[in-house]
Fold this sequence. Notes:
The chain is an alpha/beta fold. The chain has helices at about 15-20, 50-55, 80-95, 100-110, 140-155, 180-190, 210-215, 220-230, 245-255, and strands spanning about 5-10, 25-30, 40-45, 60-65, 115, 130-135, 165-170, 170-175, 200-205, 220, 235-240, 245, 260-265.
Amino acid sequence: MSRLAILCGGGQLPVALCAAHPDxxxxxxxxxxxxxxxxxxxxxxxxxxxxxxxxxxxxxxxxVMAGGLGRPALNPANFDAGMMAIAPRLLxxxxxxxxxxxxxxxxxxxxxxxAVVGAHELLEGLCAQEGLIAGPxxxxxxxxxxxxxxxxxxxxxxxxxxxxxxxxxxxCLGIETLQGTDALLRFVSETPEALRRDKGVFLKAPKRGQxxxxxxxxxxxxxxxxxxxxxxxxxxxxxxxxxxxxxxxTLAALQETGLFLLGRVI
Length: 266
């Protein structure tokens, strides 16, 4: 028997995966909110040994991590034997960037004989395609700003930092950090007009060498509205390496706001 398990975090991606794969085992973590309706088997991250046993007993050989999972607080006094065995590797990784931590998490699951797969491998049409997806053709300045934003993210990749940046008229107005996309766009929205010479663009792209199975960047309708409030002309994403969540709602938001969405090889 071979079965898929969906590790459900926040947002609509786990919901879409559960709808597309109704026979999958739904797993949640204590302290991590999700929007999945229906039965979800909840486990403690402090007792990973118990989680591994549960997955194996139910024939799980593949697992997809979907949605925001955060970094739940850990109390070593509650660790089971399985967690105690991996704690010397896991605890130091919690002090590093997301990419380093998630690579270790993948390795731990695969050591248990459970292959980690990406949501984009399970949902057709999830990723942004190359070319103009919605809205007006971007200006030459917008394309130049997108290239500058890509250069900024590429330079930051070795530091395991940043999946997004806003550039306007060649000037960087903000970089995505641990606080996420919403915080970045809110910060940009507060930029004084005197510092802006053009609307600019918001670019979303994975870090260099990022494992897209567990941490593929994503945009959705809320991203579009936040970008519009930030005053940018449009959004540029890395083609085939960024997910468009709730695609119909995202396209409707783009039409409503007048922003463009462009997929580009980055």
